[in-house]
Sequence to fold (466 residues):
Amino acid sequence: MSFISTARAVADAAARSPRLLSTFVLSLFFVDVCARSLARWHTAHNETFDLAFYVRIAWGFTEGDLYNPIVGASVWGLRLSPVLYPLGWLGRWLGTAPVLLVAQALAVTLAGGLMARIAARRLGARAAWLGALVWVAYPHLGHVLTYEFHPGTIALLPLVGLVDAYDRGAPRALLLNALGVLMCREDFAVILIAFGVMTLFTHRALRWSALGVIAASVIWLGVFTLYLHPRFAPPQGSMVLHFGQWGATAPEALRFILTHPGALFEHLVIPKRLLYAFKLGAPLLMLPALGARWLIPAAPILGMNLLSQFPTTLGLDSHYLTPAVPFILVAALEGAAVARAWLKAGRFVLPTLIAALLIGHLIAGGTPIAQDYPAWAFGADTRTEAARALLAYIPPQATTQVPDRLTPHLAERQHIYRAKSPPQGADYVIVDAHEPQHDAVRATLKEGYRLLDQRGALSLWTRTSL
Fold:
């Protein structure tokens, strides 16, 4: 079957049953995301400690242990993510890491269903499948859903729910979805504040609900920022990594930016920052510019990404972009409706948008059909076998200090540390020769430890007293 005949068949199916087609697209998406995220975890190819970080928090909730040894701080100074509490309890029976990964995939898939409904409102009932396609094809989710776990990704469901509640003029749904966002991450309160301000000026029937959202968000963020974080913050947090050039704390950074406009200008005129908006909008034909009101809730996230000095923040595959994506896509759908009404050749807007999306996905979508697909990350290899062999030596109750990609497999225990951290006197230490800190870690093992086994770049050391 040729490409043209296939496209016609899909178009005919969409015309006959757009909801059925969107459900089919999202079901495939869910199965693919679950399979690949679980495969990456199972083969020990997670490259950062994020999955382990949240596994340890979720597991700690069920044990009454609110200290996270991976970063050396209490949960109260890290994230306010109550959504992890029920997931942690479910993880006691099914395994915390698999539960978190599947829950993340399910939440994002359900959000895609809401996006299909939003597309149908703006572009007609037959466009429901287009909302689902925009959701899964935009070159972002294919990366973040299989790379690690973040409660902020689960927040995509209530974030899209906010837009759906806005469209329906449903005050209770608006408040409930805002609460859902706050239960995922406290810093997403800045999104809710911006969303509430937009709603105040654009939707009279929801003004009181918008005021409630703003008030709750300010209180939630204020409690964390002014009391919990200063009291329980880790020795070194993400604030310094992202905004350390501006100041060690948020007030210091804000003061520096306001009093040093020249430094801010030099930071923003770097080509990768100048092209950031184009990078985000190109797969959507820059249509979000025509639905600009929906970029207001996205503005705090996009602004912080531009201010950040962290090297990967401005990537399409960065999870720092994730909370802004729903609003960028809704802006694109609204922009498509505007362009279709304005242009004489408006019937070509949607086909061109679909073509741009597919081209963007083929280049940078992060899925098996994309050019940038990291196939190595989802299959067992010699590194996987080496990791499994060394992990099998470690008893369930032993204290451990291991490289980041192995921490998710040991996170459900009281004492688990990163190999990049200072020596913790752990019972078992795994050293990865490929990590920059390799020599420094090995130097700490010269006394009091003996080499137990070595597999490729990984070596397992244990205390001589054991």
Observations:
- The longest helix spans residues 96-123.
- The beta strands are 67-68, 73-74, 400-402, 416-418, 428-432, 449-455, 458-463.
